[in-house]
C-alpha cells in the first residue's frame, strides 16, 4: 500500500485527509477495517497494487446511514474502467450494508473523477474553498459529491 501511495501524484492524495504514504496512516486504516468501520477493496495486477477503494462508515455517529467513498487508481491504469469497477463494487457493499447515502470528496480540478462519479448518480453538494493544502502549502478547493441510495 505504501509503495502504491508513493507512486501516486501528491495531488491525488489530498482528498483523503491523511497522507497514505505514512506507515502509521496505513496501520490505522487496517485497524479500522478490522473494527468494521471500513470496507476495503484492492485491485492487483501481476502482484502489484493498481487500485484501491474504501467505504468508510461511522456506525456509532449521527450519520451512520452515510458511507464515504475513497477511490485511488494508479496513474497508468486510469481510463481503463478500473475506477468504475471499484466504485460499482463499493456501491454493492453499501447496498448490502443498508446505507441511505454515499459521499465522495475530491479536489475541484479532478474533472475526470468527478465525471465518473456523476455517471453513477453522484451530484455536487458542496464546494469547500481552500479546504486542503498540498505539500507546498498551496490551497485547493474540495468538492463533495453525494448519491442517495434509498429514498
| Chain-averaged pLDDT | 84
User: How would a textbook summarize the main sheet?
Assistant: 6 strands, mixed
Helical amount among residues, as a percent range?
Answer: 25-40%
Biggest sheet, spatial arrangement of strands:
1-2-3-4-6-5
* Intertermini distance: 36 Å
Number of helices: 5
Low-confidence spans: none
Total DSSP E strands: 6
CATH class: Alpha Beta
Report the CATH architecture.
3-Layer(aba) Sandwich
Radius of gyration: 15 Å
Q: Structural class from helices and strands? A: alpha+beta
What is the domain total for the residues? 1
CATH-assigned fold name: Aminopeptidase
Keywords:
Aminopeptidase, 6-stranded mixed sheet, 151 residues, 5 helices, alpha+beta, 6 strands
Task: Write a brief structural summary.
This protein has about 150 residues and is α+β, with helices and mostly antiparallel strands.
Give the SSE layout:
Blueprint: H1 2-7, H2 10-13, H3 23-34, E1 38-45, E2 48-56, E3 66-73, H4 82-96, E4 101-107, H5 111-119, E5 123-133, E6 139-148
Parallel strand pairs: 3-4
Antiparallel strand pairs: 1-2, 2-3, 4-6, 5-6
Outline the structure in words.
This protein has one domain: Gcn5-related N-acetyltransferase (GNAT) (Aminopeptidase, 3-Layer(aba) Sandwich), CATH 3.40.630. The mean pLDDT is 84. A 6-stranded mixed beta sheet has the order 1-2-3-4-6-5, sandwiched between helices. 24% of the residues are buried. It is of the alpha+beta class and 151 residues long. The N and C termini lie far apart (36 Å). It has 5 helices and 6 strands, in the order αααβββαβαββ. The chain has helices at 2-7, 10-13, 23-34, 82-96, 111-119, and strands at 38-45, 48-56, 66-73, 101-107, 123-133, 139-148.
Amino acid at each position: 500500500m505504501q509503495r502504491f501511495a508513493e507512486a501516486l501524484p501528491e495531488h491525488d492524495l489530498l482528498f483523503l485527509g491523511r497522507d497514505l504514504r505514512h506507515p502509521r496512516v496505513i496501520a490505522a486504516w487496517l485497524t479500522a477495517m478490522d473494527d468494521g468501520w471500513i470496507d476495503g477493496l484492492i485491485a492487483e495486477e501481476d502482484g502489484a497494487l493498481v487500485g484501491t477503494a474504501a467505504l468508510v462508515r461511522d456506525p456509532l455517529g449521527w450519520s451512520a446511514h452515510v458511507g464515504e467513498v475513497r477511490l485511488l487508481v494508479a496513474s497508468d491504469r486510469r481510463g481503463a474502467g478500473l475506477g468504475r469497477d471499484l466504485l460499482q463494487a463499493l456501491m454493492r457493499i453499501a447496498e448490502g450494508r443498508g446505507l441511505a447515502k454515499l459521499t465522495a470528496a475530491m479536489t475541484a480540478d479532478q474533472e475526470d473523477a468527478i465525471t465518473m462519479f456523476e455517471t453513477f448518480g453522484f451530484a455536487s453538494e458542496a464546494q469547500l474553498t481552500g479546504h486542503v493544502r498540498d505539500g507546498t502549502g498551496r490551497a485547493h478547493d474540495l468538492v463533495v459529491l453525494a448519491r442517495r441510495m434509498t429514498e
